[in-house]
Write the C-alpha coordinates for this entry.
Amino acid sequence: MTSTATAAQATTPPVTDRRLNLISLVLALGVFITLLDTTIVNIALDHLRTVFDASVAQTQWVATGYLLAFVSVIPVSGWLSERFGARNAWMFAVGAFLVGSLLCGLAGSLPELIAFRVVQGIGGGMVMPITLSIVTRAAGPERLHKATAAVALPGLLGPILGSVLGGAIVQSLSWHWMFLVNVPVCLVALVLGRFLLPATAGQRGHRLDVSGFLLLTPGVVGVAYGIGEVSGKDGFAAARAWLPLFIGVVLLAAFTVHSLRARRPALIDVRVFARRSFGLSGVITFASGFSTYALSFLLPLFYQQVRGETVLHTGLLLIPQGLGTMFFVVALRNLAARLDGRFVVAAGVLLTMIGTVPFALADAHGRTALLLAGQFAQGLGFAATTFPVMALALSSLSHDETPRGSAAFSVVQRVGAPFGVAVIAVILQNRLAGAATATDGLSAFSGTFWWIVGLSAVPLVLAFFVPSQKRTEPEPEPTAPTVPAQ
Protein backbone atom coordinates (compact mmCIF):
# COMPACT_ATOMS: atom_id res chain seq x y z
CA MET A 1 0.00 0.00 0.00
CA THR A 2 1.26 3.41 -0.84
CA SER A 3 1.66 6.07 1.80
CA THR A 4 -1.02 8.16 0.06
CA ALA A 5 -3.52 5.32 0.32
CA THR A 6 -2.62 4.74 3.92
CA ALA A 7 -3.08 8.41 4.75
CA ALA A 8 -6.41 8.49 2.97
CA GLN A 9 -7.64 5.52 4.96
CA ALA A 10 -6.42 6.99 8.18
CA THR A 11 -8.49 10.15 7.61
CA THR A 12 -11.64 8.35 6.41
CA PRO A 13 -14.60 9.64 8.43
CA PRO A 14 -15.91 7.09 10.93
CA VAL A 15 -19.10 5.21 10.14
CA THR A 16 -22.15 6.25 12.17
CA ASP A 17 -24.08 3.70 14.21
CA ARG A 18 -26.98 3.78 11.75
CA ARG A 19 -24.78 3.05 8.76
CA LEU A 20 -22.87 0.40 10.70
CA ASN A 21 -26.17 -1.35 11.43
CA LEU A 22 -27.04 -1.33 7.72
CA ILE A 23 -23.59 -2.67 6.80
CA SER A 24 -23.91 -5.42 9.42
CA LEU A 25 -27.35 -6.37 8.09
CA VAL A 26 -26.06 -6.80 4.54
CA LEU A 27 -23.04 -8.79 5.64
CA ALA A 28 -25.22 -10.96 7.88
CA LEU A 29 -27.29 -12.03 4.86
CA GLY A 30 -24.21 -13.50 3.20
CA VAL A 31 -23.05 -15.32 6.33
CA PHE A 32 -26.56 -16.61 7.02
CA ILE A 33 -27.25 -18.11 3.61
CA THR A 34 -23.88 -19.86 3.24
CA LEU A 35 -24.11 -21.58 6.65
CA LEU A 36 -27.84 -22.28 6.30
CA ASP A 37 -27.24 -24.13 3.04
CA THR A 38 -24.55 -26.30 4.63
CA THR A 39 -26.96 -27.60 7.26
CA ILE A 40 -29.83 -28.12 4.81
CA VAL A 41 -27.67 -30.29 2.55
CA ASN A 42 -26.14 -32.34 5.38
CA ILE A 43 -29.60 -33.28 6.63
CA ALA A 44 -30.70 -34.34 3.13
CA LEU A 45 -27.70 -36.51 2.19
CA ASP A 46 -29.55 -39.77 2.79
CA HIS A 47 -32.45 -38.50 0.67
CA LEU A 48 -30.04 -37.60 -2.15
CA ARG A 49 -28.51 -41.07 -1.94
CA THR A 50 -31.95 -42.55 -2.63
CA VAL A 51 -32.78 -40.07 -5.40
CA PHE A 52 -29.57 -40.76 -7.35
CA ASP A 53 -29.42 -44.47 -6.41
CA ALA A 54 -25.83 -44.00 -5.22
CA SER A 55 -23.70 -45.31 -2.38
CA VAL A 56 -23.14 -43.43 0.86
CA ALA A 57 -19.50 -42.83 -0.12
CA GLN A 58 -20.51 -41.34 -3.48
CA THR A 59 -23.23 -39.13 -2.01
CA GLN A 60 -20.94 -37.88 0.74
CA TRP A 61 -18.97 -35.98 -1.89
CA VAL A 62 -21.88 -33.54 -2.14
CA ALA A 63 -20.79 -32.35 1.31
CA THR A 64 -17.06 -33.11 1.00
CA GLY A 65 -16.64 -31.30 -2.34
CA TYR A 66 -18.24 -28.19 -0.86
CA LEU A 67 -16.09 -28.37 2.27
CA LEU A 68 -12.80 -28.74 0.39
CA ALA A 69 -13.62 -25.86 -1.98
CA PHE A 70 -14.79 -23.81 1.03
CA VAL A 71 -11.53 -24.11 2.97
CA SER A 72 -9.28 -23.90 -0.11
CA VAL A 73 -10.23 -20.29 -0.86
CA ILE A 74 -10.09 -18.91 2.71
CA PRO A 75 -6.32 -18.24 2.61
CA VAL A 76 -6.54 -16.24 -0.61
CA SER A 77 -9.54 -14.16 0.48
CA GLY A 78 -7.33 -11.60 2.25
CA TRP A 79 -5.27 -10.96 -0.86
CA LEU A 80 -8.42 -10.77 -2.97
CA SER A 81 -9.84 -8.05 -0.68
CA GLU A 82 -6.63 -6.01 -0.91
CA ARG A 83 -6.21 -6.45 -4.66
CA PHE A 84 -9.77 -5.69 -5.81
CA GLY A 85 -11.32 -3.95 -2.79
CA ALA A 86 -13.30 -5.59 0.01
CA ARG A 87 -16.74 -4.72 -1.36
CA ASN A 88 -15.93 -6.07 -4.82
CA ALA A 89 -14.45 -9.23 -3.31
CA TRP A 90 -17.53 -9.76 -1.13
CA MET A 91 -19.88 -9.32 -4.06
CA PHE A 92 -17.82 -11.73 -6.14
CA ALA A 93 -18.04 -14.31 -3.33
CA VAL A 94 -21.82 -13.96 -2.95
CA GLY A 95 -22.20 -13.96 -6.74
CA ALA A 96 -20.22 -17.21 -7.05
CA PHE A 97 -22.38 -18.75 -4.33
CA LEU A 98 -25.48 -17.58 -6.22
CA VAL A 99 -24.33 -19.14 -9.49
CA GLY A 100 -23.37 -22.36 -7.72
CA SER A 101 -26.76 -22.52 -6.00
CA LEU A 102 -28.65 -22.01 -9.26
CA LEU A 103 -26.59 -24.69 -11.03
CA CYS A 104 -27.08 -27.12 -8.14
CA GLY A 105 -30.83 -26.59 -8.32
CA LEU A 106 -30.76 -27.44 -12.04
CA ALA A 107 -28.39 -30.43 -11.72
CA GLY A 108 -29.60 -33.64 -13.33
CA SER A 109 -27.06 -36.12 -11.99
CA LEU A 110 -24.90 -36.71 -8.93
CA PRO A 111 -21.59 -35.82 -10.68
CA GLU A 112 -23.13 -32.53 -11.87
CA LEU A 113 -24.39 -31.76 -8.36
CA ILE A 114 -20.94 -32.43 -6.84
CA ALA A 115 -19.22 -30.21 -9.44
CA PHE A 116 -21.67 -27.35 -8.87
CA ARG A 117 -21.30 -27.71 -5.09
CA VAL A 118 -17.60 -26.94 -5.61
CA VAL A 119 -18.62 -23.67 -7.29
CA GLN A 120 -20.84 -22.95 -4.27
CA GLY A 121 -17.96 -23.70 -1.92
CA ILE A 122 -15.64 -21.28 -3.70
CA GLY A 123 -18.07 -18.46 -3.04
CA GLY A 124 -19.09 -19.58 0.44
CA GLY A 125 -15.53 -19.97 1.69
CA MET A 126 -14.65 -16.35 0.96
CA VAL A 127 -17.76 -14.81 2.52
CA MET A 128 -16.84 -15.05 6.22
CA PRO A 129 -13.21 -13.79 6.15
CA ILE A 130 -14.13 -10.89 3.82
CA THR A 131 -17.13 -10.13 6.04
CA LEU A 132 -14.93 -9.97 9.14
CA SER A 133 -12.50 -7.70 7.31
CA ILE A 134 -15.23 -5.25 6.26
CA VAL A 135 -16.97 -5.13 9.64
CA THR A 136 -13.70 -4.73 11.56
CA ARG A 137 -12.67 -1.71 9.50
CA ALA A 138 -16.14 -0.15 9.56
CA ALA A 139 -16.74 -0.58 13.31
CA GLY A 140 -13.34 0.21 14.78
CA PRO A 141 -12.16 -1.21 18.14
CA GLU A 142 -14.79 0.64 20.19
CA ARG A 143 -17.83 -0.90 18.48
CA LEU A 144 -16.37 -4.22 17.38
CA HIS A 145 -18.28 -6.22 20.02
CA LYS A 146 -21.57 -4.85 18.73
CA ALA A 147 -20.78 -5.27 15.05
CA THR A 148 -19.39 -8.81 15.24
CA ALA A 149 -22.41 -9.93 17.25
CA ALA A 150 -24.81 -8.46 14.69
CA VAL A 151 -22.96 -10.18 11.82
CA ALA A 152 -22.33 -13.51 13.52
CA LEU A 153 -25.79 -14.03 15.06
CA PRO A 154 -27.53 -15.02 11.79
CA GLY A 155 -24.59 -17.30 11.06
CA LEU A 156 -25.12 -19.07 14.38
CA LEU A 157 -28.86 -19.32 13.82
CA GLY A 158 -28.45 -20.55 10.23
CA PRO A 159 -27.42 -24.12 11.09
CA ILE A 160 -30.31 -24.45 13.55
CA LEU A 161 -32.92 -23.04 11.17
CA GLY A 162 -31.38 -25.15 8.44
CA SER A 163 -32.42 -28.29 10.30
CA VAL A 164 -36.05 -27.16 10.26
CA LEU A 165 -36.02 -25.82 6.71
CA GLY A 166 -34.12 -28.82 5.37
CA GLY A 167 -36.55 -31.26 6.95
CA ALA A 168 -39.53 -29.34 5.60
CA ILE A 169 -38.09 -29.18 2.05
CA VAL A 170 -37.19 -32.88 2.00
CA GLN A 171 -40.63 -33.91 3.24
CA SER A 172 -42.76 -31.44 1.24
CA LEU A 173 -40.86 -30.20 -1.85
CA SER A 174 -38.29 -31.35 -4.40
CA TRP A 175 -34.64 -31.54 -3.32
CA HIS A 176 -33.87 -28.91 -5.97
CA TRP A 177 -35.36 -26.26 -3.66
CA MET A 178 -32.62 -26.87 -1.10
CA PHE A 179 -30.42 -24.84 -3.46
CA LEU A 180 -32.91 -22.63 -5.29
CA VAL A 181 -34.02 -21.12 -1.96
CA ASN A 182 -30.63 -19.36 -1.85
CA VAL A 183 -31.18 -17.43 -5.08
CA PRO A 184 -33.56 -14.67 -3.91
CA VAL A 185 -31.58 -14.10 -0.69
CA CYS A 186 -28.32 -13.76 -2.62
CA LEU A 187 -29.92 -11.33 -5.08
CA VAL A 188 -31.15 -9.14 -2.23
CA ALA A 189 -27.69 -9.24 -0.61
CA LEU A 190 -26.00 -8.21 -3.88
CA VAL A 191 -28.36 -5.30 -4.50
CA LEU A 192 -28.05 -4.00 -0.94
CA GLY A 193 -24.30 -4.60 -0.90
CA ARG A 194 -23.80 -2.47 -4.00
CA PHE A 195 -25.33 0.56 -2.28
CA LEU A 196 -24.60 0.07 1.42
CA LEU A 197 -21.16 -1.53 1.76
CA PRO A 198 -18.21 0.90 1.94
CA ALA A 199 -16.27 0.99 -1.32
CA THR A 200 -12.49 0.65 -1.09
CA ALA A 201 -10.05 0.89 -3.96
CA GLY A 202 -7.96 -2.13 -4.86
CA GLN A 203 -4.17 -2.13 -4.84
CA ARG A 204 -3.05 -2.96 -8.36
CA GLY A 205 0.58 -3.48 -7.42
CA HIS A 206 -0.28 -6.00 -4.72
CA ARG A 207 1.10 -9.36 -5.83
CA LEU A 208 -0.23 -12.75 -4.82
CA ASP A 209 2.10 -14.78 -2.61
CA VAL A 210 2.26 -17.72 -5.03
CA SER A 211 4.70 -19.79 -2.94
CA GLY A 212 2.54 -19.29 0.13
CA PHE A 213 -0.58 -20.20 -1.83
CA LEU A 214 0.99 -23.46 -3.04
CA LEU A 215 1.86 -24.38 0.56
CA LEU A 216 -1.05 -23.05 2.60
CA THR A 217 -4.06 -23.96 0.44
CA PRO A 218 -3.13 -27.65 -0.10
CA GLY A 219 -2.16 -27.80 3.59
CA VAL A 220 -5.55 -26.56 4.78
CA VAL A 221 -7.36 -28.81 2.28
CA GLY A 222 -5.31 -31.83 3.38
CA VAL A 223 -6.11 -31.25 7.04
CA ALA A 224 -9.80 -30.66 6.27
CA TYR A 225 -10.03 -33.80 4.11
CA GLY A 226 -8.22 -35.94 6.67
CA ILE A 227 -10.51 -34.72 9.43
CA GLY A 228 -13.52 -35.57 7.30
CA GLU A 229 -12.28 -39.14 6.90
CA VAL A 230 -11.69 -39.64 10.64
CA SER A 231 -15.35 -40.55 11.21
CA GLY A 232 -14.86 -43.71 9.13
CA LYS A 233 -14.48 -47.25 10.44
CA ASP A 234 -10.85 -47.06 11.63
CA GLY A 235 -10.88 -43.44 12.81
CA PHE A 236 -7.45 -41.79 12.93
CA ALA A 237 -5.79 -45.15 12.16
CA ALA A 238 -7.16 -45.21 8.61
CA ALA A 239 -4.59 -44.23 5.96
CA ARG A 240 -7.18 -42.07 4.20
CA ALA A 241 -7.39 -40.03 7.43
CA TRP A 242 -3.88 -39.83 8.86
CA LEU A 243 -2.02 -39.54 5.53
CA PRO A 244 -3.72 -36.32 4.31
CA LEU A 245 -3.60 -35.02 7.89
CA PHE A 246 0.15 -35.63 8.02
CA ILE A 247 0.76 -34.08 4.59
CA GLY A 248 -1.42 -31.11 5.51
CA VAL A 249 0.42 -30.49 8.78
CA VAL A 250 3.79 -30.69 7.02
CA LEU A 251 2.66 -28.16 4.41
CA LEU A 252 1.30 -25.85 7.12
CA ALA A 253 4.62 -26.05 8.96
CA ALA A 254 6.44 -25.24 5.72
CA PHE A 255 4.14 -22.28 5.16
CA THR A 256 4.86 -21.02 8.68
CA VAL A 257 8.58 -20.97 7.91
CA HIS A 258 7.87 -19.28 4.57
CA SER A 259 5.69 -16.61 6.20
CA LEU A 260 8.33 -15.80 8.81
CA ARG A 261 11.07 -15.44 6.19
CA ALA A 262 9.07 -13.77 3.40
CA ARG A 263 10.35 -10.34 2.33
CA ARG A 264 7.01 -9.41 0.78
CA PRO A 265 3.66 -9.79 2.59
CA ALA A 266 2.85 -13.49 2.90
CA LEU A 267 -0.61 -14.86 2.16
CA ILE A 268 -1.13 -14.91 5.95
CA ASP A 269 1.26 -13.31 8.41
CA VAL A 270 1.68 -15.95 11.13
CA ARG A 271 3.32 -13.38 13.42
CA VAL A 272 -0.16 -12.21 14.47
CA PHE A 273 -0.54 -15.47 16.39
CA ALA A 274 2.39 -14.47 18.58
CA ARG A 275 0.28 -11.67 20.05
CA ARG A 276 -1.38 -12.73 23.25
CA SER A 277 -4.83 -11.50 22.26
CA PHE A 278 -4.92 -12.99 18.76
CA GLY A 279 -3.04 -16.19 19.57
CA LEU A 280 -5.04 -16.99 22.69
CA SER A 281 -8.30 -16.24 20.89
CA GLY A 282 -7.27 -18.68 18.18
CA VAL A 283 -6.47 -21.42 20.71
CA ILE A 284 -9.80 -20.94 22.51
CA THR A 285 -11.64 -21.01 19.18
CA PHE A 286 -9.82 -24.20 18.18
CA ALA A 287 -10.51 -25.83 21.56
CA SER A 288 -14.19 -24.93 21.29
CA GLY A 289 -14.44 -27.49 18.52
CA PHE A 290 -14.34 -30.17 21.23
CA SER A 291 -17.30 -28.66 23.08
CA THR A 292 -19.63 -26.11 21.54
CA TYR A 293 -19.18 -27.17 17.91
CA ALA A 294 -19.27 -30.86 18.83
CA LEU A 295 -22.71 -30.35 20.37
CA SER A 296 -24.10 -29.27 17.00
CA PHE A 297 -23.00 -32.67 15.68
CA LEU A 298 -24.10 -34.77 18.64
CA LEU A 299 -27.52 -33.33 19.53
CA PRO A 300 -29.29 -34.22 16.22
CA LEU A 301 -27.93 -37.78 16.45
CA PHE A 302 -29.11 -38.06 20.05
CA TYR A 303 -32.64 -36.99 19.20
CA GLN A 304 -32.90 -39.20 16.11
CA GLN A 305 -31.08 -42.35 17.25
CA VAL A 306 -31.92 -42.41 20.97
CA ARG A 307 -35.28 -40.62 21.02
CA GLY A 308 -36.49 -41.68 17.58
CA GLU A 309 -37.41 -38.18 16.40
CA THR A 310 -37.94 -37.29 12.73
CA VAL A 311 -35.64 -34.87 10.91
CA LEU A 312 -38.22 -32.08 11.05
CA HIS A 313 -39.06 -32.65 14.73
CA THR A 314 -35.35 -32.71 15.55
CA GLY A 315 -34.92 -29.34 13.90
CA LEU A 316 -37.76 -27.93 16.00
CA LEU A 317 -36.25 -29.33 19.18
CA LEU A 318 -32.95 -27.57 18.42
CA ILE A 319 -34.54 -24.10 18.30
CA PRO A 320 -33.97 -23.30 22.04
CA GLN A 321 -30.23 -23.32 21.43
CA GLY A 322 -30.64 -20.54 18.88
CA LEU A 323 -32.95 -18.66 21.24
CA GLY A 324 -30.25 -18.74 23.91
CA THR A 325 -27.77 -17.19 21.48
CA MET A 326 -30.29 -14.56 20.44
CA PHE A 327 -31.09 -13.71 24.07
CA PHE A 328 -27.42 -12.97 24.75
CA VAL A 329 -27.14 -10.68 21.73
CA VAL A 330 -30.38 -8.81 22.41
CA ALA A 331 -30.39 -8.59 26.23
CA LEU A 332 -26.89 -9.24 27.57
CA ARG A 333 -24.41 -8.06 24.94
CA ASN A 334 -24.01 -4.51 26.23
CA LEU A 335 -23.66 -5.70 29.82
CA ALA A 336 -21.05 -8.29 28.83
CA ALA A 337 -19.07 -5.61 26.94
CA ARG A 338 -18.68 -3.66 30.20
CA LEU A 339 -17.41 -6.64 32.21
CA ASP A 340 -13.99 -8.22 32.38
CA GLY A 341 -13.66 -10.36 29.24
CA ARG A 342 -12.06 -13.20 31.18
CA PHE A 343 -15.13 -13.71 33.32
CA VAL A 344 -17.54 -13.39 30.40
CA VAL A 345 -15.75 -16.12 28.43
CA ALA A 346 -15.39 -18.33 31.53
CA ALA A 347 -19.08 -17.89 32.34
CA GLY A 348 -19.94 -18.81 28.77
CA VAL A 349 -17.94 -22.03 28.95
CA LEU A 350 -19.52 -22.91 32.31
CA LEU A 351 -23.01 -22.35 30.90
CA THR A 352 -22.20 -24.67 28.00
CA MET A 353 -20.99 -27.33 30.44
CA ILE A 354 -24.09 -26.95 32.63
CA GLY A 355 -26.34 -27.17 29.59
CA THR A 356 -24.65 -30.41 28.49
CA VAL A 357 -25.08 -32.24 31.82
CA PRO A 358 -28.84 -32.95 31.34
CA PHE A 359 -28.00 -34.82 28.14
CA ALA A 360 -25.32 -36.84 29.91
CA LEU A 361 -27.96 -37.87 32.48
CA ALA A 362 -30.88 -38.21 30.03
CA ASP A 363 -33.16 -41.20 29.58
CA ALA A 364 -34.58 -42.48 26.31
CA HIS A 365 -37.89 -40.79 27.17
CA GLY A 366 -39.12 -37.89 29.29
CA ARG A 367 -37.40 -34.84 30.81
CA THR A 368 -37.75 -33.02 27.50
CA ALA A 369 -38.28 -29.67 29.23
CA LEU A 370 -34.97 -30.08 31.07
CA LEU A 371 -33.18 -30.90 27.80
CA LEU A 372 -34.65 -27.83 26.11
CA ALA A 373 -33.54 -25.67 29.06
CA GLY A 374 -30.07 -27.21 28.72
CA GLN A 375 -29.97 -26.23 25.04
CA PHE A 376 -30.94 -22.67 25.92
CA ALA A 377 -28.00 -22.57 28.35
CA GLN A 378 -25.73 -23.99 25.64
CA GLY A 379 -26.77 -21.26 23.18
CA LEU A 380 -26.27 -18.59 25.83
CA GLY A 381 -22.83 -19.98 26.69
CA PHE A 382 -21.84 -20.33 23.05
CA ALA A 383 -22.60 -16.65 22.42
CA ALA A 384 -20.84 -15.52 25.60
CA THR A 385 -17.74 -17.41 24.50
CA THR A 386 -17.72 -16.76 20.75
CA PHE A 387 -18.41 -13.04 20.42
CA PRO A 388 -15.89 -11.69 22.99
CA VAL A 389 -13.16 -14.00 21.70
CA MET A 390 -13.77 -13.01 18.08
CA ALA A 391 -13.81 -9.32 18.97
CA LEU A 392 -10.59 -9.72 20.99
CA ALA A 393 -8.78 -11.30 18.04
CA LEU A 394 -9.96 -8.80 15.43
CA SER A 395 -9.43 -5.72 17.61
CA SER A 396 -5.72 -6.53 17.81
CA LEU A 397 -5.32 -6.08 14.04
CA SER A 398 -4.27 -2.83 12.42
CA HIS A 399 -6.10 -1.46 9.39
CA ASP A 400 -3.60 -3.00 6.96
CA GLU A 401 -3.54 -6.35 8.79
CA THR A 402 -7.31 -6.80 8.83
CA PRO A 403 -7.88 -8.66 5.50
CA ARG A 404 -5.16 -11.27 6.05
CA GLY A 405 -5.74 -11.45 9.81
CA SER A 406 -9.43 -12.16 9.23
CA ALA A 407 -8.46 -14.94 6.84
CA ALA A 408 -6.09 -16.39 9.44
CA PHE A 409 -8.80 -16.41 12.10
CA SER A 410 -11.25 -18.03 9.65
CA VAL A 411 -8.72 -20.79 8.93
CA VAL A 412 -8.53 -21.55 12.67
CA GLN A 413 -12.33 -21.66 12.86
CA ARG A 414 -12.74 -23.92 9.84
CA VAL A 415 -10.03 -26.35 10.93
CA GLY A 416 -10.59 -26.33 14.71
CA ALA A 417 -14.35 -26.86 14.63
CA PRO A 418 -14.38 -29.99 12.41
CA PHE A 419 -11.31 -31.39 14.17
CA GLY A 420 -13.09 -31.24 17.53
CA VAL A 421 -16.22 -32.73 15.97
CA ALA A 422 -14.14 -35.55 14.43
CA VAL A 423 -12.63 -36.43 17.82
CA ILE A 424 -16.09 -36.55 19.42
CA ALA A 425 -17.35 -38.64 16.47
CA VAL A 426 -14.57 -41.19 17.04
CA ILE A 427 -15.38 -41.36 20.76
CA LEU A 428 -19.07 -41.93 20.00
CA GLN A 429 -18.27 -44.47 17.31
CA ASN A 430 -16.04 -46.51 19.63
CA ARG A 431 -18.68 -46.48 22.38
CA LEU A 432 -21.43 -47.51 19.95
CA ALA A 433 -19.33 -50.36 18.54
CA GLY A 434 -20.19 -52.62 21.46
CA ALA A 435 -23.77 -51.43 21.87
CA ALA A 436 -26.15 -54.36 21.45
CA THR A 437 -29.29 -52.85 22.97
CA ALA A 438 -31.05 -49.51 23.11
CA THR A 439 -29.79 -49.11 26.68
CA ASP A 440 -26.22 -49.57 25.48
CA GLY A 441 -26.80 -46.94 22.82
CA LEU A 442 -28.09 -44.49 25.41
CA SER A 443 -25.04 -45.22 27.57
CA ALA A 444 -22.73 -44.56 24.60
CA PHE A 445 -24.28 -41.13 24.04
CA SER A 446 -24.24 -40.33 27.77
CA GLY A 447 -20.53 -41.14 27.98
CA THR A 448 -19.80 -38.99 24.92
CA PHE A 449 -21.66 -36.05 26.44
CA TRP A 450 -19.50 -36.42 29.57
CA TRP A 451 -16.44 -36.24 27.31
CA ILE A 452 -17.70 -32.91 26.00
CA VAL A 453 -18.13 -31.64 29.56
CA GLY A 454 -14.58 -32.72 30.40
CA LEU A 455 -12.99 -31.28 27.26
CA SER A 456 -14.72 -27.96 27.96
CA ALA A 457 -12.29 -27.55 30.82
CA VAL A 458 -9.62 -26.60 28.24
CA PRO A 459 -11.26 -23.34 27.04
CA LEU A 460 -12.42 -22.72 30.63
CA VAL A 461 -8.84 -22.61 31.90
CA LEU A 462 -7.67 -20.60 28.89
CA ALA A 463 -10.41 -18.02 29.52
CA PHE A 464 -8.61 -16.72 32.61
CA PHE A 465 -5.56 -15.84 30.50
CA VAL A 466 -7.62 -13.62 28.18
CA PRO A 467 -6.46 -9.98 28.41
CA SER A 468 -8.90 -7.86 30.40
CA GLN A 469 -11.00 -5.64 28.14
CA LYS A 470 -13.44 -4.14 30.62
CA ARG A 471 -15.19 -1.05 29.31
CA THR A 472 -17.00 1.24 31.74
CA GLU A 473 -18.06 4.04 29.42
CA PRO A 474 -20.87 3.72 26.86
CA GLU A 475 -19.90 3.36 23.23
CA PRO A 476 -19.32 6.78 21.61
CA GLU A 477 -21.77 7.99 19.02
CA PRO A 478 -19.87 9.05 15.87
CA THR A 479 -20.81 12.46 14.55
CA ALA A 480 -18.77 12.54 11.36
CA PRO A 481 -20.57 12.26 8.02
CA THR A 482 -21.14 8.77 6.71
CA VAL A 483 -19.09 8.83 3.51
CA PRO A 484 -17.59 5.49 2.50
CA ALA A 485 -13.98 5.45 1.34
CA GLN A 486 -13.79 5.59 -2.41
About this structure: The chain has three domains: 14-203, 209-266, 272-472. Residues 1-12, 471-486 have pLDDT under 50 and may be disordered. Residues 285 and 413 are 6 Å apart (CA to CA).
